[in-house]
Structures are given as structure tokens and as C-alpha cells.
Amino acid sequence: QVQLVESGGGLVQEGGSLRLSCAASGFSISAYSMSWYRQPPGKERELVAGISKSGTNIHYEDAVKGRFIISRVNAENTLFLQMNNLKLEDTAVYYCFASSHASPSDYWGQGTQVTVSS
Q1: Distance of CA 81 to the CA centre of its chain
Q2: What are 39-87's pLDDT values in tens digits?
Q3: Mean pLDDT across the stretch 80-103?
Q4: Pairing outcome for strands 10-13 and 112-117
Q5: How many other C-beta atoms can be found within 10 angstroms of the C-beta atom of residue 90?
Q6: Can you give the pLDDT at residue 103?
Q7: I want to staple 22 with a disulfide (CB 3.0 to 4.6 A). Which of 8, 15, 72, 96 is the partner?
Q8: Among candidates 67, 94, 72, 63, which has minimal Cα distance to 83?
């Protein structure tokens, strides 16, 4: 059974840090580009960061550039998002996403809540 399971979310104060994990099962992430998306309350889901299959190419949206770090350990079938200097506007449900041009299927995790308080 294919699954992506996010963990590491929670409540943190402004300026704090959290590290999200996304554990894959039922398929190998090494064949997939991986991304983190988020959906703030009352808003649409938006891209946060993406990383290529090998980890060579990385993209960050401007809102998180310099504060968030995306990484992957293919041998552990896991994707990470290190979030530093968190801001109120980072409050959202965070989702991991796996996609591949070679596969007809893309996969989403169930999401993990991140709440930043003042």
C-alpha cells in the first residue's frame, strides 16, 4: 500500500523551529521528485519547496527562502523540511507530495498541522 506519512508538526512560538518528516512506504522516493506544500487557514494549497530525485536541484518559494531547508534521504525513503525562524504566516497544514514523469500516479500525504503563535 502506497503511503506518505508526515510528522513533526505542532505548536511553536514565533522565531522557533520545527522539523517535518515525510516517510514513504509502498514505493521508492528515489524515483520521484518530492515537494512540500502547505495550506494556510482559508487559503488554497501552495508550494513551499521542491527537491529533485537526486537532491541536486532544489527550489524554494520566496516566502520561505533563507528560513526553510528541504532535504531527502533516499536510502531511508524519507523527505524532510527544516523550518527555522518561523513566522505567524507559516501557520498551515503541511503536505508532502511525490511526483514522477515516469509514473501515472502522484502521491500526497495526509498533512501535518503547524501552528505558529505570538
Answers
A1: 5
A2: 999 999 999 999 999 999 999 999 999 999 999 999 999 999 999 999 9
A3: 95
A4: parallel
A5: 22
A6: 79
A7: 96
A8: 67
- Torsion angle defined by CA atoms of residues 81, 23, 51 and 89, in that order, rounded to the nearest 10 degrees: -30
Torsion on CA atoms 85, 86, 89, 94, rounded to nearest 10: 130
Task: Record the cell numbers describing residue 97, joined without a space.
Answer: 507530495
* Rounded Cα gap, residues 51 and 24, in angstroms: 15
Q: How many residues does the chain have?
A: 118
Instruction: Give one DSSP letter per residue of 34-84, joined into a string.
Output: EEEEEE-TTS--EEEEEE-TTS--EEE-TTTTTTEEEEEEGGGTEEEEEE-
Q: Which residues 6+ apart lie within 8 Å of 47 measured at CB?
A: 35, 36, 37, 61
What per-residue confidence (pLDDT) applies to 104? Answer: 81
